[in-house]
Amino acid sequence: MPPVKLVPAPWNLRGSGYIIALNLPESELERHLPKFSDKFAFVSLPIIMLVDYQSSEAGPYFELLFIPGRLDTPDGQFWHITKIYVSTEISVVNGINNWGIPKELANFHFTKYATGHKVSVELNSKTKIAEFDLSFSDFKIPVTTAIVPGGLMNFRQQIDNKLFDYSISANGKIAFGSTKRVATNPDFFPKISLSNIRMTFGVPDFNLQFPVANVKSI
Q1: For the chain, what is the domain count?
Q2: Domain residues for 117?
Q3: 212 vs 6, 149, 164, 198, 208, CA distance in Å?
Q4: What is the pTM (predicted TM-score) of this model?
Q5: pLDDT, tens digit, for every residue of 45-98?
Q6: Residue 144 is assigned to a structural domain of this protein
Q7: Contact 77/43 with Cβ under 8 angstroms?
Q8: Where are the alpha helices (DSSP H) in 63-174?
Q9: What is the rounded CA–CA span in Å between residue 202 and residue 18?
Q10: Domain CATH code at residue 24
Q11: Above 90 in pLDDT, residue 6?
């Protein structure tokens, strides 16, 4: 196979998706602790994101990710992606190279119906990662990170002996949503049930900017 094309940052992405805020037991969060600090506290709820990127510098792709919460560390506060699946190899390779995001390849079935989406993510036909049945209301509110203090959008990732720091920006529309069904395979993703879901939002249209990361060896 030919080598995967390298697509350096910055990236500008357009798409739609869902944000699911969770309430998880400490035992589940402990399975997803960051490597870059042994002193931290969670200062937000954990988050799942399901995204249909309709365009990006790496082309269109689907994504499922888990963030255990915003972390308060001696170096500052950061979001940190601990589990993430995408539908294309070019997104896997460049997500790791550009931002230290630990992307893994999976198969996605993103099916739209009258009131929402059914989403299935799997490694193969016999190994399911997660399944969702989601919807959101027709009432949409414009949102932008331009009014958010910059530090609240900081991310930090670690791959081997490198730290990747970057701060994203976004704008679009958001709506209240509902998760009607969720099933996850705890061997490949956090264990989630409907009782763990605090709130669901639909993001029917957004633009997202991923800048060049500040990379340093540790």
Answers
A1: 1
A2: 11-217
A3: 14, 19, 9, 33, 13
A4: 0.95
A5: 999 999 999 999 999 999 999 999 898 888 889 999 999 999 999 999 999 999
A6: yes
A7: yes
A8: 89-99
A9: 5
A10: 2.40.400.10
A11: yes
